């Protein structure tokens, strides 16, 4: 199959990611069918896209005619088999439950054309394991969008064990066609590149919440002011969803290290359905899509240096494990998928190795987590030669 042959995309799942992905494809002139298990779910997905396009019209970024054209490219279905039978690319964005992903993969790979690409939008899970359930696994791969999909530029394109180069290249071409920047992930490893680099920071967030002595507001405030992040780390956890945040940590605790186990505060938030923005309450109270954060103070304790040192350390591990093709690709991923103003290797190049190592050793001692210990390449500064 060639890029010109791709005319119709089927998106399985109409939740936050699914409807955002369908919007992006429809805006690029492709037909996109959004599938879910209940009419009310697809209706909600369509309403979200409609609202999002209205916002772009109100900002003068889209004409009313173009909006009508985009809406005309979209349709909905309650049947996976029906939706995929004439699709060239299928993007699965169902909840992060391995058994569900496998069932969906089996169903869609049986009903889709034999050469249709089948991509999972999983944010952490093994694509190779999902692919064991599917027909023709050489066309099964990962296509990981970031939230909100219409805004975030980066998309990770992930090799599963049996994916062919040609299929990865085709998906990268398609990613460019829909206005995104593809980041190739060479090894199907938990969290891939970008979320993996964020994993130990998630563990730090959980440890800070359990410690209970530090004000999340003041940490988020300094992170936005000094590290140029659009959202602070606690705010982002609420934005992505405490359930998603919790489940990714749990997955890392089962696959990377038991130290990623979500802490008590996250567990309590999950149990009491305080899931962040979507329920109006999480770490913060949310109103009108914004977290109520007291920005009057900036943390003098934990701050940008801590989060950055952890990020650079994990980026070194991602590099050594050959998950990415290069240090430049890792940086590209962090810039386009997280809207960071620069990637970990670029930022690390200007820093003293001893300062990074000291910061990491202090975090290791303070929170008792070995995942914060500096890699040897941080200590001797040789991470700066990683290309
Ligand atoms: N469609 C297209 N563009 C949109 C849009 C939409 N629906 N909604 C907003 N935009 C554009 C706006 O036009 C604006 O563009 P401009 O800067 O060129 O004017 C820009 O996005 C910002 O929009 P707003 O001004 O309305 O809103 P904010 O400035 O409050 O930004 C935000 C909101 C984009 C969510 C921002 O806070 C942000 O980038 N947060 C960080 C998000 C992030 O890090 N996501 C990654 C999460 S991790 C993840 O997804 C992993 C997964 O595996 C779980």
Taking the sheet with the most strands, its summary is: 8 strands, mixed
Low-confidence region ranges: none
Structural class: alpha/beta
User: Structurally, how many domains make up the residues?
Assistant: 2
- State the end-to-end CA separation: 33 Å
User: Which range does the strand content fall in?
Assistant: 5-15%
Spatially, the strands of the biggest sheet line up as 3-2-1-4-5-6-7-8
Write the layout of secondary structure elements.
Blueprint: E1 8-12, H1 16-27, E2 31-35, H2 39-58, H3 64-73, E3 74-77, H4 80-84, E4 89-92, H5 98-111, E5 117-120, H6 127-131, E6 140-144, E7 154-158, H7 165-177, E8 181-185, H8 194-211, H9 216-226, H10 233-240, H11 242-255, H12 264-271, E9 286-287, E10 290-291, H13 304-320, H14 327-338, H15 344-349, H16 353-367, H17 376-379
Parallel strand pairs: 1-2, 1-4, 2-3, 4-5, 5-6, 7-8
Antiparallel strand pairs: 6-7, 9-10
Bound molecules: 3-hydroxybutanoyl-coenzyme A.
3-hydroxybutanoyl-coenzyme A (3HC) is lined by residues 52, 55-56, 59, 61, 123, 146-148, 150-152, 195, 230-231, 236, 240, 244, 338-339.
Describe this entry's structure for a reader.
The two termini are 33 Å apart. The protein has 2 domains: 3-185, NAD(P)-binding Rossmann-like Domain (Rossmann fold, 3-Layer(aba) Sandwich), CATH 3.40.50.720; 193-387, N-(1-d-carboxylethyl)-l-norvaline Dehydrogenase, domain 2, CATH 1.10.1040. The longest helix is centred in the N-terminal third of the chain and has 20 residues, at 39-58. It has helices at residues 16-27, 39-58, 64-73, 80-84, 98-111, 127-131, 165-177, 194-211, 216-226, 233-240, 242-255, 264-271, 304-320, 327-338, 344-349, 353-367, 376-379; strands spanning 8-12, 31-35, 74-77, 89-92, 117-120, 140-144, 154-158, 181-185, 286-287, 290-291. Helix content is 50%, strand content 11%. Helix 1 (16-27) packs across helix 2, helix 8 (194-211) runs antiparallel to helix 13 and helix 10 (233-240) crosses helix 11. It has 387 residues and is an alpha/beta fold. It has 17 helices and 10 strands. The chain has an 8-stranded mixed sheet with strand order 3-2-1-4-5-6-7-8, with helices on both faces. It has a two-stranded antiparallel ribbon with strand order 9-10. The radius of gyration is 21 Å and the shape is globular. It binds 3-hydroxybutanoyl-coenzyme A. Residues 52, 55-56, 59, 61, 123, 146-148, 150-152, 195, 230-231, 236, 240, 244, 338-339 line the site of 3-hydroxybutanoyl-coenzyme A. The site of 3-hydroxybutanoyl-coenzyme A (3HC) has 20 residues, from helix 2 and helix 10.
């Amino acid at each position: 199959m060639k890029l010109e042959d791709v005319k119709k995309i089927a998106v399985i799942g109409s939740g936050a990611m699914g409807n955002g992905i369908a919007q992006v494809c429809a805006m690029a002139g492709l037909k996109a069918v959004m599938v879910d298990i209940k009419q009310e779910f697809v209706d909600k997905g369509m309403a979200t896209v409609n609202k999002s396009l209205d916002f772009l019209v109100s900002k003068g970024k889209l004409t009313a005619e173009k909006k009508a054209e985009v809406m005309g490219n979209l349709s909905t279905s309650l049947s996976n088999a029906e939706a995929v039978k004439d699709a060239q690319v299928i993007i699965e964005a169902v909840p992060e439950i391995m058994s569900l992903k496998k069932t969906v993969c089996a169903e869609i790979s049986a009903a889709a054309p034999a050469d249709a690409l089948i991509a999972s939008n999983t944010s952490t899970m093994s694509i190779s394991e999902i692919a064991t359930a599917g027909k023709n696994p050489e066309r099964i791969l990962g296509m990981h969008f970031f939230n909100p999909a219409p805004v975030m530029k980066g998309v990770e394109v992930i090799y599963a064990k049996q994916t062919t180069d040609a299929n990865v290249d085709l998906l990268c071409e398609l990613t460019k066609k829909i206005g995104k920047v593809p980041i190739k992930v060479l090894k199907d490893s938990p969290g891939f590149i970008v979320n993996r680099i964020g994993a130990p920071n998630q563990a730090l967030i959980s440890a800070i919440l359990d410690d209970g002595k530090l004000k999340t507001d003041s940490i988020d405030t300094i992170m936005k002011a000094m590290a140029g992040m659009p959202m602070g780390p606690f705010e982002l956890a609420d934005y992505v969803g405490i359930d998603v945040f919790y489940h990714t940590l749990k997955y890392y605790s089962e696959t990377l290290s038991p130290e990623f186990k979500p802490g008590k505060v996250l567990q309590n938030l999950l149990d009491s359905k305080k899931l962040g923005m979507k329920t109006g309450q999480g770490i913060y109270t949310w109103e009108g899509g914004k977290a109520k954060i007291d920005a009057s103070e900036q943390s003098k304790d934990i701050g940008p240096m801590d989060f950055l040192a952890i990020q650079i350390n994990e980026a070194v591990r991602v590099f050594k494990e050959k998950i990415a093709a290069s240090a430049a690709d890792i940086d590209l991923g962090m810039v386009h998928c997280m809207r960071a103003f620069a990637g970990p290797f670029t930022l690390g190049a200007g820093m003293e190795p001893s300062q990074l190592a000291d910061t990491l050793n202090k975090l290791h001692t303070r929170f008792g987590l070995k995942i914060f210990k500096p890699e040897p390449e941080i200590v001797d500064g040789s991470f700066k030669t990683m290309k």
